[in-house]
Known about the structure:
alpha/beta
Amino acid sequence: MKAAARALARGEALLSRAFGQAGNPFHHLGALCIYCFWIALVTGIYLFVFYATSIEGSWASVERLTHGQWYAGGVMRSLHRYASDAAVLFLLGHVLREFVRGRYTGARWFSWFTGVPLVWLVLWFGISGYWMVWDQLAQYVALSTARLFDALPVFTDPMSRNFLDNASLSDRFFTLIAFIHLVGLPIFLVLGIWFHLLRIRLPRINPPRALMAGSLLAMLLLSLLQPALSHAPADLERVPGALALDWFYLAIFPLQDGIGALPTWLLLGGATLVLAALPWLWPAPRPAVAVVHLPDCTGCGYCAEDCPYGAIDMVPRTDGRNLALQAEVDAAMCVGCGICVGSCPSSSPLRRQQPLHSGIELPEPSLQWLREAIVAPPPGPQPRILLAACACAAEAARVSDAGVVALELPCIGLLPPAAVDYALRSAGFDGVAISGCAIGDCLHRYGERWTIERVARERPPMLRERVPRERLSLSWNKRGEEAALARAIAALRASLQAQERGHPGGPA
């Protein structure tokens, strides 16, 4: 799995060069899926204004809209189709990426488990849309869907009897399909997305504006160059001819044609169960859970504010101290990232107490370990640099440079700003290099962002003003981009050497 994650990161790094780290589409696959859903919803409402819910009027109204109003209705129809297809593409990419990166197990099981039904909701959402056109493709989809459900012992009368001939249908059928497609399924989809994000604090449901604009423009151009068109009108008394399938939504039906309805249910049902059970079938090692040390907890609430998973609550004080609140960790929701440690004002290696504790910390790596790791740089060539890197940059943290001391942290958000001050002013390091995940792609969602804001004095606990910024280097890279980190360290070393010669340089 690590090899797959590394290969994925290398591929994503190429897109970062084109779009920038913050605008890399792979960093926003879930948000892009939701964005495409909103495009499909808005365009679908426009199309429904001109849609006739009747046997005779459904196909004719779509044709009038497509050809008679090609500049508006035709574009809207094509945009509706391509946004729906893109939603499936982004959704499948999001699922695969979360799996490869191991973000489906442990405390994250809830989001993974509740995301599985969303896959089916999106697919049935698209399939029901094809019924409404009532062309030969819709006829094939309707008959295939009816046969699929007839294989289940649910309905007393076979659904396929409703499609024996043209007289079997009524206009109410299209009213029902329109209600399901435009009201029922969207409501369930919105509720499903809300439930999927229920345990995620500060979810990013909107991609960057530039990415939204670019995606919309690309789909608009595709709509103009390759407009979505209907097949011939449906006729239940004739077998449909050659069909152009939308494989994003309709691949299930050729599968059914090949192996039968019941085997299709068994295959899809089994795959769904395996997908939903992955957090328990393929679990990851349980990380160390953050622990509150009440003698040092002041109840400031910074840890609860910074936790990306809502694993920390502020509750009434229990130790009798003259403070209102204390932090409390929900072990079932903690992923052991350590971001809360970096947000605790008492997480200062400068303190002399033995053993060293902060208001909240991980059992491993502990704050005591952090102080001992940076207490004094080993003898070696100058300038001597402390490199603090997250676990995603583990390979990069194991540098062979004699002048660099590397610290590997679960997340760069664990690094307290006071540790940087301590390394430069008390431990004897000449510079500090901070390395974390690429911008917008932190494995723990906000580690790199909170670190940037703490160093920039925009988020507490802030890096002290007395810390010389020219002795710091911040580098944000993906797994496998050791060369980029090496260049950042080399630039910091050159800057520090220039400062030693009396020619101050800026930060690397």
